[in-house]
Amino acid sequence: MSDLTVSRHFVQAALAGAEHLGFDTGEMLREAGISPDLLRIEMARVNSDQFSLLLQIAWNRMDDEFMGMGPRRARAGTFATMCALVIDCPTLEAVYRRAYQFSRLFDPMVAMKLETDEQKVRLVTNIEGEIHDPHYFLRESILVIWHRLGCWLIGQPVELEKAEFDYPRPTHGDEYRHIFRCPLEFESDCTALTFDKRFLSAPVIRDKPEMLQFLKTSPADLLSRPDESNTFTGKIRALIGRDFSKPLPDFEWIATELHTSPQTLRRRLKQENTSFQEIKDLLRRDMAIYYLGRQELSINDIAAKVGFTEPSTFHRAFKKWTGVTPGAYREGERGNLKV
């Protein structure tokens, strides 16, 4: 079970190209187990497993890994071929340089180019030609996939120092805090990620059998399920666990478990664009959405499971998270929403 959720915005944004080209996106949603009705709730979220499946369905149905948003089609298998070429690279720098060489074989080109100076590295997006990307999904995806693929290959997070975008802050800009976990800069002269040069010499630790396993669900999983095991956010989520019916551990205990001081931990969470309170709130929200999909549980049961002694308090919190009551949300998941 995945206890992460994805904003409705990304579900709709991912299907913009398919819709533009006349594909039946309602059918794609239903095949992924997402009720089109649910998407009528402005602050709705879907389980990351469902989102990952939706991306795979769209790629296969359209035979296009750019999902109708790119300057050309990227036939299914393009990403896997690039991965087969980079798995033999000795370091992260070699990975990014070879991936760029592969990407420039296609015209028009869609790639990320490495720019280095004494201390810093920038991975700069390079998209030629016209794109149909009204919600910036293609551009966000390229940044996320190239960054997370690199992290996976070297087995450690490449900590970002800055994420830049050559467009104004979009309405879903707040979601970027949790995607990139670094300072954000909009209306920049390019779309790029900046990190410390030391990461370029990190060795690739994955092998071909691991890559074959990885490709069964990637790049969909790279977009829908970040590997947060090496972030403080992810470590805290793991320490809190999923049982909210008993008192949650306090911040001092968590800092001790992570062998750090509370002050340092607060600072690290600020660098990751979050706070202890927000981590608890979002975990509660995601668990509540997960439990609402289990029809055998009553809403009062769910309130208790996510740590609310009073159902009325749960209703208020859930409405703040999603804009609707738990009952209306459940109806949306079932496809019975009355708006």
TrEMBL record:
Domain HTH araC/xylS-type: 234-332
Record has DNA-binding as a keyword: yes
Superkingdom of origin organism: Bacteria
Gene Ontology CC: cytosol
Gene Ontology MF annotations: DNA-binding transcription factor activity; transcription cis-regulatory region binding
InterPro entries attached to this UniProt entry: AraC-type_N, Homeodomain-like_sf, HTH_AraC, Tscrpt_reg_AraC-type_HTH
SMART domains named in the record: HTH_ARAC (SM00342)
A Pfam short name: Arabinose_bd
Keywords per UniProt: DNA-binding, Transcription, Transcription regulation
Protein name: Transcriptional regulator, AraC family
